[in-house]
């Protein structure tokens, strides 16, 4: 085979690899529209949109973490803990026993408290990883158990149901985050807003460049003056905030908070990020690709449910999707290196 033909084939393969997530999404839409009744209905689209909002927001934070070469397994547990804290504040308020009073907060204040909780947990993850040199997998795995345990302790494993609030206490309105505006789920609107903000932050700011440089070569980033530990901590703070936001939306959609909410959602977030082109090796990723990956995960999940696929097989399929995505990513990296070497040889 001639050099020109090899180069042309490599270019075509690279183009297909870069657009693989869109291709997979289109194939899935066609497949489920044939195999699942009413898959192309408006109700199904809105249902998928509600789920994509949850996976997508989680995956935004996960994208930042993975780009730096890390991982965050605590995101699902933070979703559950955030929902439980919010639900408890709505139903029971905050009791200050030493003063003999119970404080009730408005919905905006509860949202702020929940987001701050997520930020604090993220900061703790970052500090453990940077200051104590603990591997991200171990640090966030431990935090996953801590957060899930605290969620259960908060209500002794019970559910906070019917989160409508009380007019007399001024804490009504929690249902807004699970509602629709002009027919569009509020969660999906929040996803779009956060995606734009974090995409700009990643691509148009010095902070974003630092995130990529750490994932590309941490030692070189340090030598170039990047405050690696500070950036890593901020990245895990972002992941914690995104998780808390998902906890707010999920509890609003369900009108209830349960300690088990968010279980295994970290796998959906990782899958969405990796499917969207974020490299597990670090240094590569886009928010836009992650959002498309979240749509792929949402379509797979809801499509399989509509086709009557059991929950156990769904877990198997999602696991295989993650492994396949990593294999394809590695193949793309090898092909890029091969094309770069070929280009250098031709320029000599």
TrEMBL record:
GO terms for cellular component: plasma membrane. The chain crosses the membrane at residues 20-40, 52-67, 73-90, 102-128, 134-151, 181-202, 233-256, 268-300, 312-331. Pfam families: BPD_transp_2 (PF02653). GO terms for molecular function: transmembrane transporter activity. It comes from the Bacteria. It is found in: Cell membrane. InterPro entries: ABC_transp_permease (IPR001851). Keywords: Cell inner membrane, Cell membrane, Membrane, Transmembrane, Transmembrane helix, Transport. It is a multi-pass membrane protein. This is ABC transporter permease.
């Amino acid at each position: 085979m001639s050099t020109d033909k090899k180069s042309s084939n490599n270019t075509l393969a690279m183009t297909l690899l870069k657009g693989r997530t869109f291709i997979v999404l289109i194939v899935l839409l066609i497949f489920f529209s044939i195999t699942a009744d009413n898959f192309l209905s408006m109700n199904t689209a809105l249902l998928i949109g509600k789920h994509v909002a949850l996976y997508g927001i989680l995956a935004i934070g996960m994208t930042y973490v993975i780009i730096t070469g890390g991982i965050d397994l605590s995101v699902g547990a933070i979703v559950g803990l955030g929902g439980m804290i919010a639900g408890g504040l709505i139903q029971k308020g905050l009791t200050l026993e030493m003063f003999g009073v119970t404080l009730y907060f408005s919905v905006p204040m509860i949202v702020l408290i929940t987001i701050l909780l997520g930020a604090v947990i993220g900061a703790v993850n970052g500090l453990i990883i940077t200051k104590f040199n603990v591997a991200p997998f171990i640090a966030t795995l431990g935090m996953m158990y801590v957060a899930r345990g605290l969620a259960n302790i908060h209500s002794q494993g019970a559910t906070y149901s019917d989160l409508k609030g009380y007019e007399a206490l001024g804490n009504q309105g929690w249902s807004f985050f699970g509602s629709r505006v002009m027919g569009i789920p509020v969660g999906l609107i929040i996803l779009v807003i956060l995606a734009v903000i974090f995409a700009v932050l990643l691509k148009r700011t010095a902070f974003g460049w630092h995130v990529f440089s750490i994932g590309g070569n941490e030692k070189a980033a340090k030598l170039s003056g990047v405050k690696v530990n500070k950036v890593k901590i901020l990245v895990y703070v972002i992941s914690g905030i995104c998780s808390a936001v998902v906890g707010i939306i999920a509890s609003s959609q369900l009108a209830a908070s349960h300690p088990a909410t968010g279980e295994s959602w970290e796998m959906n977030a990782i899958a969405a990020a990796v499917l969207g082109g974020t490299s597990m090796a670090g240094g590569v990723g886009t928010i836009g690709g992650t959002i498309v990956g979240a749509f792929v995960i949402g379509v797979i999940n809801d499509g399989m449910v509509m086709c009557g696929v059991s929950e156990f097989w769904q877990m198997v399929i999602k696991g295989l999707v993650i492994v396949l995505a990593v294999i394809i990513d590695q193949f793309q990296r090898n092909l890029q290196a091969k094309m770069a070497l070929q280009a250098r040889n031709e320029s000599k």
